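=== RUN LOG ===
request id: a7f3
mode: sequence -> structure
chains: 1
length: 117
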Amino acid sequence: MTEKQYTAEYTPEALEQYAELDSDSQDKILGAIKSFEILGTQYKNINKLDYELYEIKPRDVRAYFQYDNDRRRIIIVGFITLKKTQKAPKRYMKQAVRNIERYKRSLTDDQTQDYNK
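=== RESULT ===
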């Protein structure tokens, strides 16, 4: 079995948005994320966006993420279905950054609580 280059983690917002996608879109994006976990940066359908965000884009579905190279993971922060010619709106990227920061704080808070037990 091939070792993963990265592990994908999902913010609560991303999980909610994933559940709202139709099953075809879910299959496309999940397959792309699984491929990225194995191939890492060699995966071809990745674009760098503003705000240190990236997007995985199989066909008409996008997943926004941010690298956490210290832990060899990517944090998936949201999904969106777009037409192929449409650019990612800035408001989605800004919301994605807020989601990442909230998610990272929650991880730090959880570790602090575990340490204090």
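=== NOTES ===
The chain has one domain: 7-107.
The chain has three helices and five strands.
=== END ===
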